[in-house]
Design goal:
Blueprint: E1 3-12, H1 23-30, E2 43-47, E3 66-69, E4 72-75, H2 80-85, E5 103-105, H3 108-112, E6 124-126, H4 148-151, H5 163-166, E7 175-179, H6 188-192, E8 198-200, E9 207-209, H7 219-223, E10 229-232, E11 237-240, H8 245-248, H9 255-259, E12 265-273, H10 277-280, H11 289-296, E13 297-298, H12 303-311, H13 316-323, H14 326-333, E14 338-339, E15 350-353, H15 384-391, H16 396-418, H17 435-446, H18 450-453, H19 466-474, H20 478-481
Parallel strand pairs: 1-15
Antiparallel strand pairs: 1-12, 2-7, 3-4, 5-6, 8-9, 10-11, 12-13, 14-15
This protein binds iron/sulfur cluster (SF4) (2 copies).
C-alpha cells in the first residue's frame, strides 16, 4: 500500500442557486485571453439537458474515458497504437459547434451612434471574428429550463425512464449541476497525452498541463469524459482547471468555492491508497465503481494509516487536515456525497450531494403532500433513477440512502425547531443518523464556518523532496505551467 494525499471537493446540489457566481471569478482569473473565450473551467449547467459541450455525457458517439479491456481498463477509442494512428486526424473531440460561438456586445456603438430616432442598441458580435451574430448556444443554454423542451430528450440520464412524460409541463423537473475538472485519481487526459504534458501532482493530486511541453495534439480533449480540457486556438495548447493551485498552496480555497454565495462547496484532503487505483478502475460492473472508489479512501484517524502516510512522505500537517476534511466526512463517514458518472472509470474527485425535491404531486391527481410523504425519495419530483444515472451508474440504492439520511436530518431539525415532544433522542438510527451525526451534519451542511468548509494545508516547499520538489519548482508562476494566460 502506498498512501498519497489528494485534494477533493464536494458540492451540495440541494443548495445550489444556479447563480453562476462561481464561474465569473474563474473566468476572470484564467480564461480571458485570446483563444480561450469559449472556455469555462467552471460552469453551471441546468439538467435535464445536453450540457456544455453539447452531449458531453454521450460516449457512444464520441468515445472517452476508460473501457474495460482484457487486462484491465484501456482508453476508450483506442489504446496507444490507435491513438498514434489518429495523431494527425483525431475526430473524437468536440468541435466549436458543440461548445458555442462566444460573443460580446458592440458597446462602442452606444457611444458613437450619434443622434438617432430610437435608442441605440449594443448588438451581439462574435468574440472570435468580430462579426455581428445571433447567439444560438452557450455554456448553460438550457438555463432554468429555457431550452429543456428542445434538448431534454437527448439527455442520456433519462435511460430507463419515460423522458417524454417527464418533460411534460406538469411533470418537468430541474436541477443545477456546477462542473469543473474532477482532478481524477485515474485521469484519462494524463494517459492520452503523447507529449507527457499533463501530469498529476504528487503532493496534492491536482492535474495540470505543462504549457512548455504541450504540443497541441488534443488527444486529452477527446479522452476526458467530462470534457474539461480545452484547446486554445490561439496558442495551440491545451488548458484546463488548475484547482486554483496558487491559492491552494497558501491554504486558500479555489475561486469557485470561495465565491459561492450558496456556500455549497467543501474542499479538503483525502488519503488515498494509490497502489489500488488500477484495480479499482477495473471493476467488471460499472455499478461497482462507486464502492470500489470508496475503498481507496483511507481512514485518516486510524493510527496505522497515519504512520504509513507519514512514512510515504505525506506531511504531518496534511494528515491532520485529512482528519478534519469535510470531503471525507460527507463522502465516506456520512455517505451523502456521490461521484459524477463513476462509470467513466477515471475515479473523479469532485463529488455531489444529490438534491432533494418536493413530492411529485400531479395536478389533479391522487397524491397530496403530507409530512411523511415529502421526505420519500421514491416519490420526489426528480426521479431517483435520473440521479442514479448521474451519480452511481444507475444503482439507486446509494442515492436513496443519501436522500433518506438528508431527509431524516430535516425531520430532526424541524422537530427541534417546533419543540415537538415526539422527538426521538436517537434520531433515526435506521438511516445511520444518530444524535451526534445529526448535530455534526447540521453544523457542516447549514451553518459551517469558512475554516470548516475549506480545510486546506499550505504547501511546504521545505518538505517537498525529489519529484515533489521538481513539480513545485514548476509551479512558482503562472507562466511555467499555464504560459502566458495572465500576461
Ligand atoms: S476530469 Fe478530465 S481533465 Fe480533469 S483529471 Fe479527469 S480526465 Fe483529466
Ligand atoms: S455553485 Fe455556488 S456560486 Fe455556483 S451557481 Fe451554485 S450557488 Fe451559485
Amino acid at each position: 500500500m502506498k498512501i498519497k494525499a489528494q485534494m477533493g471537493m464536494v458540492l451540495n446540489l440541494d443548495k445550489c442557486l444556479g447563480c453562476h457566481t462561481c464561474s465569473i471569478p474563474c473566468k476572470n482569473a484564467w480564461t480571458t485571453a485570446r483563444g480561450s473565450e469559449y472556455m469555462w473551467f467552471n460552469h453551471v449547467e441546468t439538467k435535464p439537458g445536453v450540457g456544455y459541450p453539447k452531449q458531453w455525457e454521450r460516449r457512444d458517439t464520441s468515445p472517452s474515458g476508460w473501457e474495460l479491456g482484457k487486462n484491465g481498463p484501456v482508453l476508450a477509442g483506442g489504446g496507444k497504437l490507435g491513438r498514434l494512428a489518429s495523431l494527425f486526424g483525431n475526430t473524437a473531440q468536440p468541435g466549436m459547434e458543440q461548445y458555442y460561438e462566444p460573443w460580446t456586445y458592440d458597446y462602442a456603438h452606444l457611444a458613437k451612434s450619434g443622434p438617432t430616432r430610437h435608442q441605440p442598441q449594443a448588438e451581439a458580435v462574435s468574440a472570435i471574428s468580430g462579426q455581428p451574430m445571433t447567439p444560438a448556444a452557450g455554456p448553460n443554454w438550457e438555463g432554468d429550463l429555457a431550452g429543456t423542451h428542445i434538448t431534454g430528450l437527448d439527455d442520456p440520464n433519462f435511460t430507463g425512464l419515460q423522458a417524454e412524460a417527464l418533460l411534460r409541463f406538469e411533470r418537468v423537473f430541474m436541477m443545477h449541476l456546477p462542473r469543473l475538472c474532477e482532478h481524477c485519481l485515474h485521469p484519462a487526459c494524463v494517459a492520452s497525452c503523447p507529449s507527457g504534458a499533463i501530469y498529476k501532482r504528487d503532493e496534492d493530486g491536482i492535474v495540470l498541463v505543462d504549457q512548455s511541453r504541450c504540443r497541441g495534439w488534443r488527444q486529452c480533449v477527446g479522452a476526458c469524459p467530462y470534457k474539461k480540457v480545452y484547446f486554445n486556438w490561439n496558442t495551440h495548447r491545451a488548458e484546463k482547471c488548475l484547482f486554483c493551485y496558487p491559492r491552494v498552496e497558501s491554504s486558500q480555497a479555489p475561486l469557485c468555492a470561495q465565491s459561492c454565495p450558496g456556500r455549497i462547496r467543501y474542499v479538503g484532503v483525502m488519503l488515498v491508497d494509490v497502489d489500488a487505483v488500477q484495480q479499482a478502475a477495473a471493476q467488471p460492473e460499472a455499478t461497482d465503481m462507486y464502492e470500489a472508489q470508496m475503498k481507496l479512501f483511507l481512514d485518516p484517524h486510524d493510527a496505522a494509516i497515519a504512520r504509513q502516510a507519514e512514512r510515504d512522505g505525506v506531511p504531518h500537517a496534511w494528515i491532520q487536515a485529512a482528519q478534519r476534511s469535510p470531503v471525507y466526512k460527507l463522502a465516506v463517514e456520512w455517505r451523502v456525497a456521490l461521484p459524477l458518472h463513476p462509470e467513466f472509470r477515471t475515479l473523479p474527485m469532485v463529488w455531489y450531494i444529490p438534491p432533494a425535491s418536493p413530492l411529485n404531486a400531479l395536478a389533479g391527481g391522487e397524491q397530496h403532500e403530507t409530512e411523511e410523504s415529502w421526505a420519500d425519495p421514491d416519490n420526489m419530483r426528480i426521479p431517483l433513477r435520473y440521479l442514479a444515472n448521474l451519480f452511481t451508474a444507475g444503482d439507486e440504492a446509494p442515492v436513496r440512502r443519501a436522500l433518506e439520511k438528508l431527509m431524516a436530518l430535516r425531520r430532526h431539525m424541524r422537530n427541534q425547531r417546533l419543540d415537538r415532544q415526539t422527538q426521538d433522542p436517537q434520531v433515526e438510527p435506521e438511516t445511520g443518523l444518530t444524535t451526534t451525526v445529526a448535530e455534526d451534519m447540521y453544523r457542516l451542511l447549514a451553518v459551517a464556518r469558512h475554516e470548516d468548509r475549506y480545510v486546506i494545508p499550505s504547501a511546504h516547499r521545505e518538505e517537498a523532496q525529489g519529484e515533489d520538489a521538481e513539480h513545485l519548482k514548476g509551479c512558482t508562476g503562472f507562466t511555467d505551467i499555464h504560459g502566458g494566460l495572465r500576461s
